[in-house]
Amino acid sequence: MAGLRERKKAETRARIADVALRLFAERGFDQTTVAEVAAAADVSVKTVFNYYPAKEDLFFDRAEEIEQRWLEAVADRQDGESLLAGLRRRSLGRFADHPNGQSAHFRRVLAGSPLLQAKGQQMWAWHEDAVADALAAEVDELTARILAHQIFNIHPLALRMVERWTEEGLEADEIRERVLALVNRAFDLLDRSVAVGGAV
After folding, report:
1. How many CB atoms lie within 10 A of CB 8?
2. Cα Rg of the chain (Å, integer)
3. Does this model's pTM top 0.90?
4. Which of these, 25, 41, 73, 100, could form a disulfide with 90 (CB 3.0-4.6 Å)?
5. What's the CA gap between 181 and 153, in Å, rounded?
6. 154-181 b/e with 16+ CB inside 10 Å = b?
7. Quick check: helix, strand or coil at residue 152?
8. What pLDDT does 78 receive?
9. pLDDT tier, 104 (very low <50, low <70, confident <90, very high otherwise)
10. Residue 63 CA to chain centroid, in angstroms?
């Protein structure tokens, strides 16, 4: 029974978040109320707040999962691979299927709300700190902080270049190849700097 209750709670939580993201994409985050999300998910407003303390938490429902994936990427390397091998694979994976990366609709909602942008920057910094702490097990703390900061700036740079190449009229396949090359070049430079510093 305990397992069934936990599964139902997880299903309810996921349904609320899915409905919220759909409504945010259709109407905009600031224009959508928690009451509207609750009604569409067929739950009470109180239930929504039981799972999500603030409205913006509905939008960033997967924050803990995303951070865990970054931490798993730090550890994802075989003997002989560079310190950043797993992080490189994760970063490449974000653009493997589409030149605009994953969850383009998520970014559109984010762009339409200053509140979400501020929260997103704060969460991005938290992810960066978590990765830096993990890297600090292998290199000195200052090096770990610098590496994590550089890694978390690769994705925004890649998206800006995708926008530029799209405006220039390049085909999607060529943009995808260029953005993957950009990510690889960035990690090549980081790997080289770490090796020169004697950290690996």
Report:
1. 10
2. 19
3. no
4. 73
5. 16
6. bbeebbeebeebeeeebeeeebbebbbe
7. helix
8. 87
9. low
10. 8
Q: Which amino acid is at 87?
A: L
Using CA atoms, how far apart are residues 82 and 73, in angstroms rounded to an integer?
12
pLDDT digits (tens, 9 = 90+) for 4-54: 888 888 899 999 999 999 999 899 999 999 999 999 999 999 999 999 999
Longest dimension (CA), the chain: 58
CB 48 within 8 A of CB 13: no
Assess contact for 120 and 110: CB atoms under 8 A. yes
Continuous segment of H or E residues that includes residue 186: helix 172-196
Specify the length of the chain in residues: 200
> What is the residue type of 174?
E
pLDDT tens digits, 123-156: 999 999 999 999 999 999 999 999 999 999 999 9
Integer Cα distance of 175 and 163 in angstroms: 9
In sequence order, the 6+-apart residues with CB closer than 8 A to the CB of 125 are none
Q: On the CB side of 50, how many CA atoms lie within 13 Å of its CA?
A: 11
